[in-house]
Specification:
mainly beta, Cathepsin D, subunit A, domain 1, 6-stranded mixed β-sheet, two-stranded antiparallel ribbon
Length: 117
């Protein structure tokens, strides 16, 4: 199932909205069980995020599959935010001159990266 993800170099964590997570679980016919997450996470506008839990999922971008821990957030404005945890762990180069990520064909900083979750 394709999900558009916004690359967010200001986010420490990779986040997915609870609504998007429920759609993906329904599509994949999975339980949707989340592991607890006990840390507080604050948004860029200093509001506390309502973290429902965490889960590790495969994220496919083009021909590459990455196993990534994501936080499921209630009422997140975007379906998915790829945070610096994903970018650093996978050594993704953010090229602001060409507005691209590591040569991925569909990863453009001006738009959203589309990957399968």
């Amino acid at each position: 199932m394709a999900v558009k993800c916004l690359v967010d170099t200001g986010s420490v964590f990779t986040l997915v909205s609870s609504q998007c997570y429920q759609r993906v679980c329904k599509y994949r016919n999975c339980e949707g069980k989340l592991d607890p997450f006990f840390e507080s996470v604050v948004s860029a506008n200093n509001e506390l995020l309502n973290i429902m839990g965490q889960v590790t999922v495969p994220i496919q971008i083009e021909n590459n599959v990455y196993n990534q821990k994501i936080l499921v957030v209630k009422d997140l404005a975007h379906d998915c935010l790829l945070g610096t945890d994903f970018l650093q762990r996978n050594m993704v180069t953010v090229d602001f001159k060409s507005m691209s990520l590591d040569g991925w064909q569909y990863a453009n900083i001006n738009a959203s990266t589309q990957g399968n979750i």
